[in-house]
Amino acid sequence: MHNAIGTGKEGAFMFKQMKSDIRTVFENDPAARGLFEVVFTYSGLHALWAHRVAHALFKRRWYTLARIISQISRFMTGIEIHPGARIGQRLFIDHGMGVVIGETCEIGDDVVIYQGVTLGGTGKEKGKRHPTIGNNVVIGSGAKVLGSFAIGDNCNIGSNAVVLRPVPPNSTVVGNPGKVVKQNGERVRDRLDHTNLPDPIVDTLRSMQKEIDQLRAELEETRRELKKSAPEVMLSSINKE
Ligand SMILES: CC(C)(COP(=O)(O)OP(=O)(O)OC[C@H]1O[C@@H](n2cnc3c(N)ncnc32)[C@H](O)[C@@H]1OP(=O)(O)O)[C@@H](O)C(=O)NCCC(=O)NCCS
């Protein structure tokens, strides 16, 4: 993660990064048509560039100026990135409106974030209180990742998921609260459904009842057969009973 403003060398690096950011838009968004359109209309790009300036100021302890830049960027793009957030290479924020990225958040390389995503705190932690996002992670629209834990590399966070716990690498998380439904390409089933715990006694009684019903039906069938073939024998046996 690099951030730089100031010297000529740093300026050249920043320009290289901007070119890489534009390339990232073309790689991620099939709707992106031309350079002019991307540079002037992609708010995710504008927010990222503003954040680089704000973050560099933040690191130099120019906190208020950094916050002012961050807030102007928020006003213009609808994306709020705290100047303290550490963002890796090739982040793509698609649409962007309503995205909030907290101060102690760390984002790896090649991450895609859609509109309405919050990378925030639970309000109960102090110090590092925002998530750490691995490399190559997709965070769907409206998803909330709340707390100081890690999302592993190559994860997919489904739209509107609310993630409150660490997520191992190569996982897909969906729902509220977020659950891992896929890992390393395999579906993950619930290990134990606490609301539908199995009852072995009821299961045994049910299978006994089933067997009794079956035996009764068989007995009835045999009686009917006997009645047809030898009614007198049947009658005497019934009389004996
Ligand atoms: C999660 C996501 C990235 C797909 O990841 P994936 O690893 O390919 O997962 P799959 O599509 O195989 O889905 C796995 C399971 O999760 C379910 N699922 C997927 N996304 C879900 C979501 N957002 N909410 C609830 N369940 C979801 C699927 O139905 C599937 O369930 P099943 O196993 O019972 O069939 C994708 O569904 C998603 O939400 N992308 C965000 C895209 C977005 O925000 N677009 C906005 C464009 S403007």
Automatic annotation (TrEMBL):
Pathway: Amino-acid biosynthesis; L-cysteine biosynthesis; L-cysteine from L-serine: step 1/2. It comes from the Bacteria. The keyword DNA repair does not apply. It catalyses: L-serine + acetyl-CoA = O-acetyl-L-serine + CoA. Keywords: Acyltransferase, Amino-acid biosynthesis, Coiled coil, Cysteine biosynthesis, Cytoplasm, Repeat, Transferase. Pfam families: Hexapep. Signal peptide: none annotated. Residues 205-232 form a coiled coil. GO terms for biological process: cysteine biosynthetic process from serine. GO terms for cellular component: cytoplasm. Belongs to the transferase hexapeptide repeat family. This is Serine acetyltransferase. It comes from Paenibacillus lactis 154. The lineage of its organism: Bacteria, Bacillati, Bacillota, Bacilli, Bacillales.
